[in-house]
Amino acid sequence: MFAGCASSTMINSVPSGAKVYINGESVGTTPYLYTDTKVLGSVVNVDLVKDGYETLYTSFTRTEQVNAGAIVGGFFLLFPFLWTMEYKPTHNYELIPLPATGDTITTEVPGPVQVKSPTERLKELKKLLDDKLITEKEYETRKKAILEEL
User: Does pTM top 0.90 for this prediction?
Assistant: First the structure.
């Protein structure tokens, strides 16, 4: 009966072969088929790790797509309303290569450069977390980097 409550999504990365961590636990490599029976609104934290690339921290929620079968079933049995939404069929992520050792990255910025204080940067970072634009793990990683600069 609960099999109808399951939702799956294929996690892909470019390049493929990235290690997949779901809620901090290593589960395989991309492409990876993720399936669960969590209820509406559940958040899944995903980290993609590959040598030579920046670690990608992201998440998705079980609110991405309507499950019509669960809605119809909810009229007969009340609890399927907890599974009326499901994940998108695929989640595709592009990993960013790390600069090669010895490479320097330079960018030209027109006009005067404004340097923000660590306090301002921490406030902006907290707002990103509050607005759910970054995950808790990404927030902690970036916060640690800002504090280490002090």
Answer: no
